[in-house]
């Protein structure tokens, strides 16, 4: 079973994402900010991370930088979730280490296609 870490400060979004991912047969874990996510990755790296951008404590961008510095033997794939669709903004995220992005709110089909693009679904 593939593992997905859902990182979002919104409990509602985590719940929605968890539900979708479980129907796609992922083992789901959750983190409420980048710091929690980093700790979770260091303890046991997931196959893929669904990453919110705006979060307290540690943002999605800072998390990506920290993940890169952590130098995990196998880096998880990262799909970042955004409400903004500016290309400069998306490019910055990809440069920081994200593999793909998905616009919020997302549905099952959209998320599944993004997970296929990064090679985990
Ligand atoms: Mg947020």
UniProtKB/TrEMBL annotation:
InterPro entries: CheY-like_superfamily, Sig_transdc_resp-reg_receiver, ST_Response_Regulator. Keywords: Phosphoprotein. The modification 4-aspartylphosphate is found at residue 52. SUPFAM superfamilies: CheY-like. SMART domains: REC. Residues 3-119 form the Response regulatory domain. Transmembrane segments: none annotated. It holds the Pfam family Response_reg. GO terms for biological process: phosphorelay signal transduction system. This is Two-component system response regulator. It comes from Sphingomonas pokkalii.
């Amino acid at each position: 079973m593939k593992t997905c870490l859902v990182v979002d400060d919104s409990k509602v979004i985590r719940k929605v994402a968890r539900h979708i991912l479980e129907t796609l047969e992922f083992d789901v874990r959750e983190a409420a900010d980048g710091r929690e996510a980093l700790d979770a990755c260091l303890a046991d790296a997931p196959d893929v991370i669904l990453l919110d951008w705006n979060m307290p404590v540690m943002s999605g961008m800072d998390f990506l930088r920290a993940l890169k510095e952590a130098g995990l033997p196998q880096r998880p794939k990262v799909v970042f979730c955004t409400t903004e669709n500016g290309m400069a903004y998306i490019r910055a995220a990809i440069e920081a280490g994200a593999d793909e992005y998905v616009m919020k709110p997302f549905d099952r089909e959209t998320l599944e296609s993004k997970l296929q693009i990064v090679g985990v679904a």
